Amino acid sequence: DAGVTQSPTHLIKTRGQHVTLRCSPISGHKSVSWYQQVLGQGPQFIFQYYEKEERGRGNFPDRFSARQFPNYSSELNVNALLLGDSALYLCASSFGQVNYEQYFGPGTRLTVT
Amino acid sequence: GESVGLHLPTLSVQEGDNSIINCAYSNSASDYFIWYKQESGKGPQFIIDIRSNMDKRQGQRVTVLLNKTVKHLSLQIAATQPGDSAVYFCAENSYGQNFVFGPGTRLSVLP
User: How far is B1 from A73, CA to CA, in rounded Å?
Assistant: First the structure.
């Protein structure tokens, strides 16, 4: 069975540009969460979507936005990229909204120059 | 805000020995915990979870212990193998909230 998939694997952008990252959850999972992981640190929560609605938001600026589609896949958008946005962006899926096993994808490595 | 922390940033063990990775959490309302393993360049891999109504749970070569009194979580790996070398994270969750991760512990298995 396919796990969580993310695209692209790697991405290089320049400051001020916009980026869209994509995630497909495990089949049957309805919740998708996005995390940012800076090198040497643990993942930091950005968003959770469940049943196409935003259910949680972490302490990130409004430049970060996301959405979930009817097939439960999700996109993370980041506008006006800053050097500090360089990180591994992780998507995780779970069956339910809270207190369910959460499985991560391989991540998208974003480098902002 | 509330956060999860780890006592030891690095841990080196001999191959074949048992490993114990510790985690302290600060949110007494947390009721669900997951241990993840992350290898270089990969996403975190689910290892084992435990809910607050339990104090111990066992998997294949791994055991998670939860002590709610002192808000402490540990991951025990039996007969540690070279393939166990990775960074290990504990993550806590309280009902209706998002998962909070600590900074991680790097496990290095020595031959």
Answer: 30
